[in-house]
Amino acid sequence: MDDAFCTLGESAKKAIFYHLEIKFGIARNDIPYNLETFEDGLHKIFGPGANFLEILIMRKLHEKIGQPLKWNENEKFAFVEYVSAAKQGFLGDSSAD
């Protein structure tokens, strides 16, 4: 999350994490364990603009795990499902070693 939010600037990143924790009760370190709450918080804070942030997060996540982001712009973007798929892909790749 940090890498994606850093592209918005340090102040914006801090503000996002602050609002997520204060308004939605999700601490920065707990985000990976509460993706639905995180996604809900982003949508309540940013409205339709949250989709841009979710895609940005997914791109950064896929860069880190070394896999291309497979995303069809014509399909509805399901953030939590994409994170789960990326996690499964990463765990599958690393368990093969």
Structure, described:
This protein has 97 residues and is mostly helical. The protein has one domain (2-95). Helices cover 67% and strands 0% of the residues. Helix 3 packs across helix 4. The protein starts with a helix and ends with a helix. The model has no long low-confidence stretch (mean pLDDT 83).
Quick structural gist:
With 97 residues, the protein is mostly helical. It has 5 helices and no strands. The protein has one domain.
List keywords for this structure.
97 residues; mainly alpha; 0% strand
Largest sheet: none
> What sort of overall outline do the alpha carbons produce when their principal axes are compared?
globular
Oligomer: single chain
Element order, helices and strands?
A: HHHHH
Number of strands: 0
Report strand %. Answer: under 5%
Q: Which consecutive residue ranges, at least 5 long each, have pLDDT under 50?
A: none
The number of domains: 1
Distance between the termini: 27 Å
Number of helical elements: 5
Residues in helix, %: 55-70%
Global structural class: mainly alpha
Rg of Cα set: 14 Å
Topology record:
Blueprint (H helix, E strand, L loop, with lengths): L1 H5 L3 H15 L10 H12 L3 H16 L13 H17 L2
